[in-house]
Design brief:
Oligomer: single chain
Order of helices and strands: HHHHEEEEH
Radius of gyration: 31 Å
Bound molecules: zinc ion
Number of domains: 2
Strand content: 15-25%
Distance between the termini: 31 Å
Strand order of the largest sheet: 1-2-3-4
Shape: elongated
Length: about 170
Amino acid sequence: MFKKIWTDPVWSKVISVGIIGIISLAYALIKSHSDNITVSQVYESLLQLKVKVIYLLGILLFFYIVKKLTKKKSKSYYTPKQQKLREFNKLRDPNTGIMFRWVVYFDYEKPFISDLEAFCTKHEGAPMRFVRNCCPIYNCENSRQSIDFHMVTNHIESILIDEWDKIKPR
Ligand SMILES: [Zn+2]
């Protein structure tokens, strides 16, 4: 309940102002007691601070707006479910040691892949990218292998369409 009110843009501001009001009143009471002056005198000195406070609030508001604008820009173009499906972007064949990488896009509601590339993982260091459908390392068994990218694309997209069917909203 409180969380709901707090996240409400209007009520959260009302509560913030209320809290600031209570704090300033408490400060005024303590200050008037310790400095032996009246509460109104404390408020007078606070009013002198007001200009500085408004200036500060202006700066804070400016940063808030900038933050909001930049946040909107970086907000993902994909829905959370599409993002989840997009995480499926590589697959390694344990028999051949060939790893495939791709990027998932959506044609309206249907997923498809692009930028499909094959890498050989049978060597030291980073996986070696294929050159002209085979591993460029001489003597590697995958250098004699020729990848049919059309078939691989069809295989991956079949998995994607099936996965998408399972997670997409009814
Ligand atoms: Zn290789």
